[in-house]
Amino acid sequence: MRTATAPLHLHRARSLDDALARLADAPDLRPIAGCTDVFVEANFGTLADRRFLDLWPLRDALGRIELRDDRLVIGALATYTDVLLSPLVRERLPILAEAAAAIGGVQIQNRGTIGGNVANASPAGDTPPVFLAVDAEVVLRSAGGERRVAYGAFHTGYRATARRPDELIVAIEAPPVDGRPFFRKVGTRAAQAISKVVVAGVRGARPAVAVGSIAPTVVRLPETERTLSRGAGRDEVREAVGREIAPIDDVRSTARYRRTVTANLVDDAFFGDR
Amino acid sequence: MRDVEKSWPSLADARHLGKRIDRIDGPVKVTGRAKYTFDVNRPNMLWAKFTLCPHGKAKVLSVDVSEATRVPGVVVAKELPLPGDATCHWHGFEVAVVAAETEEAAREGARRVKVEYEVLPHNVVDDTTDVGDWVDEGRSREQGEVDEAFASADVTVEGEYGCPIITHCCLESHGSVVEAKGDAKLEVWPSTQRISSIGNDFANELGLDPKDVHADCQHLGGGFGSKFGFDVWDKACAAIAEETGRPVKAMLERDHEIMVAGSRPSAYAKVKVAARKDGTLTGFDFESWGSGGPSRSGALRMPYVFTEVPHRRVHSNVRTNTGPNRAWRAPGHPQMAWLTMAAVEDAAAALGLDPLELFRRNLAATDRPDVYAEELDVAAGLIGWKEKWEPRSAKKGVVRRGLGLSIHTWGGRGHDSNARTTIHSDGRVDVECGTQDLGVGTRTVLAICVAETLGLPVEAVRVHIGDNRLPPSGASGGSTTVGGISSSSRTSAVDAVNQLIARVAPDLEASAEECAAAGGRIFVRSDPARGVAWAEACALIGQDPIVGNGRTDPELMNSGVGGVQMSEVEVDVETGVATMVKHVAVQDCGTIVDLETAESQVYGACIMGITSALFEERVMDPVTGRCLNPDMEFYRLAGIGDVGELVVHMMQTDAHHGRGVIGLGEPPVISPLAAIGNAVANACGVRVPRAPFTPRNVLSALAKGAAR
Q: CATH number, domain at B244?
């Protein structure tokens, strides 16, 4: 049963300060932008929130993608399409463009935002493994000021984050990548498919591997990374992956498929010849 | 000799016939002006929604609609008639209907109907015959000396293959809008594949005179065989419209549609093939089973196409508590093609032969050896078979490509159809036919046939279809429409134009037999300068327009086609993801009316077939008997990014053109599953026995293959 929309309240933010002030007053306000997740909830009748803060008018201020102190700064309201079209992203973090291209279809890419993908905190989200693999930071702001949270500390549980109700994600910042990054999403068709397994990582002196869709949050695989950095062989690496993840069966895939394919993807990224 | 001959003009003489002509209703469709049943909204209209049984099988003990009637906006809430045993036989069985002022209120009302059930034992498992009493064993049939064939075979190959139940998943779901007009008259807008006769069912239901029911369906968002019925939702709309005097609209929700409004039976088989070293097929043994829901599904008549090879077959029917099957585009054929062609390809692999060579070697065992031989050559050239094909054993690496092929057959003779062509004194031309356009270009076919006959541009003809007040025409099923309507419209236009010529001829000082209509003029054949323009000729008509009547003419149509399809796929053996690279379809269909919409039919069929091969399956929960994926996230269809490169080649020589018109809706949807399945096997190096070729099915086949 779809959620009835008549009782819902929408506040349109006039400025970032206005948005932060409203959030400080009413922490039950749910910030929204592209609404690509909100509409899914409404369609399934699971939309619990009643009051919304529309951030879309702040796109000019929070939708920019720029370089600051050699760090790539993605404004929270940058859409997947913005990311796809950004020469800076292509140059500095091409796997983010790959992830953006893999999300939904063109309509979703035009509306969905990076901040929303991170805030929504789905374990199957496509951009979180990228940010996690490259040690990004989430920039949060409230009426009281700004703070930064390391990406690895941001997702605290299934669909739970370190964001306080009075805070907004204003940007994600990624440091320069030391090594060759990779991204692989295994969905069930070319577009409009949610991941069965999604892996991002960096091949280099400090190997990094982040995986989505196999745990309550996107996760790094530290043991696998240590195994890789000491130059272990592929069998050992596969074993490390196997020990480190404990996926479940659900509507999108089976534990067995996820375990096998995660190991295959890591193996392919670090030992494959493609 | 007639002035304008009934027979189709030759390829060389035709002005429109067989050319590439844009569909005439393209603009109204892409601009959203085309009105489908889903778009029909009447003043003061009620929406109807249904309360569905949530169990695989359950007896209804009581239905309480009192809470539903209290939902603001609800006007009618009532129990629906149940079968004699008061039992719902599948998840999604309609138990009650609620009509309300808004769609939302009707939905809420339907949710609030309280139904008490006694849950009964059910079966939804059909991929095995190990389901106790739910199986009806069939009779064994045999043709030729089968035991001898296997005893003397150089090689015997055994395999097991299958494909699950899939649904029609029409873009426009099923439904109707019904309006009582007073004076025992009814106006209905059903989404139907048989506009000429559906009104009679509404009339019977309400005890009306059939001529007092006006049925209108201008555009149909797909049917594929699932929209012939007069269904629960149609009956409910009719009853509520009569009861309330208000228009009522019921369009199925997607979950409802996927659960009950049509499915294609599953098919599984253990197959043995006997062959000689040179690839000659000498015997088949099929032990097949499948399910089409609670009743019997059609038996599978295998071997497919290679019918002359000695064979034995036995088919068992598995009864399941799932929404019943309906005709699905080429009923039985895609399944038979898959179960046969997979076994044949496996035989080729076992013999170390190129399957294309093995197919060629066995064409004598088919109905149309010459047609297939030519089409195999064309298809092989288009996909680059000779350059690309490698045996399974040669495949290496993570991402592997493979080629596969399949061949198919279909009848496609036109149905009974009537048409009327009217020429007005101002030069306007109307063609009327009580047919329907399932989205395939029916209007365009009618315009082309009439314009060709009258010697006019296609856009000069106005087309009227989708209305039961028009000359009756058959239901659109079995690829029968184009043969029927092309011949009825042709003969009606011949009748009309010959009447016009008869009036004009005296002014040209010629006999009617000496005149012709072409290039927008009526003129004397031997002296084309002696003639009048179309408008001038029509000015002679006077007050009463010329009316030409026509009906299906067997001399203008034919039946029996062959087709070849080849597929190239890429399989990632680490993820199990199979991706389409290229798919080639070569098809004959006799006289092609419009090359462009004919090709479009084939493109659409290939996409539908690719979807069935890679994605589609209706998943049932064995414990609860519920359908687990009645939505379009988990009942997956291919997107444009999934179909790869499609190449369509229509056989259009003088010989093909001279055969008469043959239907094209079904044949090209038959082979994709088999061709893709064979390409996946060729790429992986092992057979993936069960469709769809999802990552999980591919990886488990690879794991089993590696363990062997």
A: 3.90.1170.50
Determine, yes or no, domain membership for B668.
Answer: yes
B704 touches chain A (CB under 8 A): no
Tokens of B193: 């594949």
Same-domain pairing of B395 and B420: no
As for how many domains chain B has, the answer is 3
With contact defined as beta carbons under 8 Å apart, do B255 and B174 qualify?
no
CA distance to partner chain B, nearest, from residue A108 (Å): 15
Boundary (domain end) residue, out of B251, B278, B302:
B251
B108 touches chain A (CB under 8 A): yes
Sheet holding A65-68, edge to edge: A65-68, A71-75, A168-174, A137-142, A145-150
Contacts of B640 in chain A (CB under 8 A): 190
Domain that holds residue B672: 330-412+558-707
B385 with B490, same domain?
no
Distance from CA of B642 to the nearest CA of A (A): 5
Q: Note the pTM of the prediction, 2 decimals.
A: 0.93
Q: Are residues B531 and B541 in the same domain?
A: yes
Mean pLDDT in residue range B344-351? 97
What would the 3-class secondary structure string for B241-260 be? HHHHCCCEEEECCHHHHHHH
Neighbours of B400 (CB within 10 A): 20
Pairing mode, if any, of strands A30-32 and A51-54?
Answer: parallel
Q: How many residue pairs from chains A and B have C-beta atoms closer than 8 A?
A: 58
In a domain, B650, yes or no: yes
Whether residue A265 and residue B399 make contact (CB cut-off 8 A), yes or no, is no
Q: Domain check: are B670 and B530 in the same one?
A: no
- ipTM of predicted complex: 0.81
Note whether residue B200 is domain-resident. yes
| Helical packing angle, B232-244 and B195-206, nearest 10° | 50
Structure tokens at B527: 């002296």
Nearest CB among B108, B636, B696 relative to A257 is that of B696
- B604 and B517 in a single domain? The answer is no
- How far is CA B73 from each of CA B46, B68, B234, B698, rounded to the nearest angstrom? 9, 10, 22, 51
Is residue B240 domain-shared with residue B339, that is, in the same domain? no
pLDDT digit string (tens) for B295-338? 887 789 999 999 999 999 999 999 999 999 999 999 999 999 99
- A164 lies within 8 A of chain B by CB: no
What confidence category does residue B97 fall into, taking pLDDT thresholds of 50, 70 and 90?
very high
Residues B576-626 pLDDT 10s: 999 999 999 999 999 999 999 999 999 999 999 999 999 999 999 999 999
